[in-house]
Specification:
about 35% helix, 5 strands, three-stranded antiparallel beta sheet, single chain, alpha+beta, about 120 residues
Length: about 120
Protein backbone atom coordinates (compact mmCIF):
# COMPACT_ATOMS: atom_id res chain seq x y z
CA UNK A 1 0.00 0.00 0.00
CA UNK A 2 1.25 3.48 -0.76
CA UNK A 3 1.85 6.16 1.84
CA UNK A 4 -0.11 9.36 1.37
CA UNK A 5 0.80 12.63 3.04
CA UNK A 6 -1.95 15.04 4.11
CA UNK A 7 -1.63 18.66 5.27
CA UNK A 8 -4.03 20.71 7.39
CA UNK A 9 -4.58 24.46 7.01
CA UNK A 10 -2.89 24.88 10.43
CA UNK A 11 0.31 23.32 9.03
CA UNK A 12 -0.01 19.86 10.64
CA UNK A 13 1.09 16.97 8.45
CA UNK A 14 -0.11 13.35 8.65
CA UNK A 15 1.17 10.34 6.72
CA UNK A 16 -1.17 7.43 6.18
CA UNK A 17 -1.09 4.02 4.48
CA UNK A 18 -4.15 3.66 2.28
CA UNK A 19 -5.27 1.63 -0.67
CA UNK A 20 -5.28 3.61 -3.89
CA UNK A 21 -9.06 3.21 -4.04
CA UNK A 22 -9.41 4.71 -0.52
CA UNK A 23 -7.01 7.64 -0.83
CA UNK A 24 -9.78 10.23 -1.22
CA UNK A 25 -12.33 8.66 1.15
CA UNK A 26 -10.02 7.81 4.06
CA UNK A 27 -8.74 11.34 4.77
CA UNK A 28 -7.53 12.18 8.31
CA UNK A 29 -9.05 15.15 10.19
CA UNK A 30 -7.37 17.95 12.09
CA UNK A 31 -9.23 21.30 11.78
CA UNK A 32 -11.48 19.75 9.16
CA UNK A 33 -10.49 17.38 6.38
CA UNK A 34 -6.83 17.58 5.43
CA UNK A 35 -5.71 18.03 1.82
CA UNK A 36 -3.57 15.42 0.10
CA UNK A 37 -0.03 16.47 -0.86
CA UNK A 38 1.97 15.14 -3.71
CA UNK A 39 4.81 12.99 -2.47
CA UNK A 40 7.80 11.54 -4.19
CA UNK A 41 7.16 7.82 -4.66
CA UNK A 42 9.23 5.33 -2.71
CA UNK A 43 11.74 3.75 -5.00
CA UNK A 44 13.49 0.45 -4.75
CA UNK A 45 17.06 0.46 -5.98
CA UNK A 46 18.55 -2.78 -7.25
CA UNK A 47 21.82 -3.74 -5.68
CA UNK A 48 24.77 -2.88 -7.88
CA UNK A 49 25.43 -6.01 -9.87
CA UNK A 50 28.39 -5.86 -12.16
CA UNK A 51 30.58 -8.75 -13.12
CA UNK A 52 32.84 -9.64 -15.99
CA UNK A 53 32.42 -12.98 -17.67
CA UNK A 54 35.43 -15.23 -17.04
CA UNK A 55 34.96 -16.63 -20.57
CA UNK A 56 35.29 -13.50 -22.69
CA UNK A 57 35.17 -10.48 -20.34
CA UNK A 58 31.62 -9.44 -21.28
CA UNK A 59 30.23 -7.06 -18.63
CA UNK A 60 27.11 -8.48 -16.97
CA UNK A 61 25.12 -5.66 -15.38
CA UNK A 62 21.76 -7.28 -14.57
CA UNK A 63 20.48 -10.62 -13.39
CA UNK A 64 18.47 -11.02 -16.56
CA UNK A 65 21.51 -10.37 -18.73
CA UNK A 66 23.54 -12.83 -16.64
CA UNK A 67 20.84 -15.52 -16.93
CA UNK A 68 20.62 -15.09 -20.72
CA UNK A 69 24.43 -15.11 -21.04
CA UNK A 70 24.71 -18.32 -19.01
CA UNK A 71 21.98 -19.99 -21.05
CA UNK A 72 23.56 -18.90 -24.35
CA UNK A 73 26.96 -20.29 -23.29
CA UNK A 74 25.65 -23.52 -21.74
CA UNK A 75 26.68 -22.53 -18.21
CA UNK A 76 24.98 -23.66 -14.99
CA UNK A 77 24.49 -22.01 -11.62
CA UNK A 78 26.82 -23.16 -8.90
CA UNK A 79 25.26 -25.37 -6.26
CA UNK A 80 23.81 -23.49 -3.31
CA UNK A 81 26.10 -23.50 -0.28
CA UNK A 82 23.78 -25.71 1.80
CA UNK A 83 23.76 -28.36 -0.91
CA UNK A 84 27.56 -28.18 -1.24
CA UNK A 85 27.94 -28.63 2.54
CA UNK A 86 25.50 -31.55 2.54
CA UNK A 87 27.42 -33.22 -0.31
CA UNK A 88 30.77 -32.69 1.45
CA UNK A 89 29.42 -34.22 4.69
CA UNK A 90 28.06 -37.24 2.79
CA UNK A 91 31.39 -37.71 1.02
CA UNK A 92 33.32 -37.45 4.32
CA UNK A 93 31.02 -40.03 5.94
CA UNK A 94 31.47 -42.38 2.95
CA UNK A 95 35.26 -42.04 3.27
CA UNK A 96 35.12 -42.70 7.03
CA UNK A 97 32.96 -45.80 6.42
CA UNK A 98 35.43 -47.04 3.81
CA UNK A 99 38.39 -46.42 6.14
CA UNK A 100 36.63 -48.37 8.92
CA UNK A 101 36.29 -51.40 6.60
CA UNK A 102 39.94 -51.42 5.51
CA UNK A 103 42.29 -53.76 7.36
CA UNK A 104 44.40 -52.15 10.06
CA UNK A 105 48.18 -52.02 9.68
CA UNK A 106 50.32 -53.77 12.23
CA UNK A 107 51.75 -51.26 14.71
CA UNK A 108 55.44 -51.76 13.70
CA UNK A 109 54.59 -51.17 10.03
CA UNK A 110 52.54 -48.11 10.93
CA UNK A 111 55.40 -46.67 13.02
CA UNK A 112 57.90 -47.28 10.22
CA UNK A 113 55.65 -45.56 7.64
CA UNK A 114 55.24 -42.56 9.93
CA UNK A 115 59.00 -42.43 10.49
CA UNK A 116 59.78 -42.55 6.77
CA UNK A 117 57.23 -39.83 6.08
CA UNK A 118 58.72 -37.65 8.82
CA UNK A 119 55.52 -37.66 10.86
CA UNK A 120 55.95 -37.98 14.61
CA UNK A 121 54.11 -41.11 15.61
Amino acid sequence: MPVYSYRCSCGAVADQYSRVSERDSNIPDCHGPMTRQLCAPMVSVQADMHALSPIDGTPLTSRRQRTEYMKRNGLQEALPATEMIRNAKAKRKANEDLAARLPKLAEPIKQRLYQEAGIPG
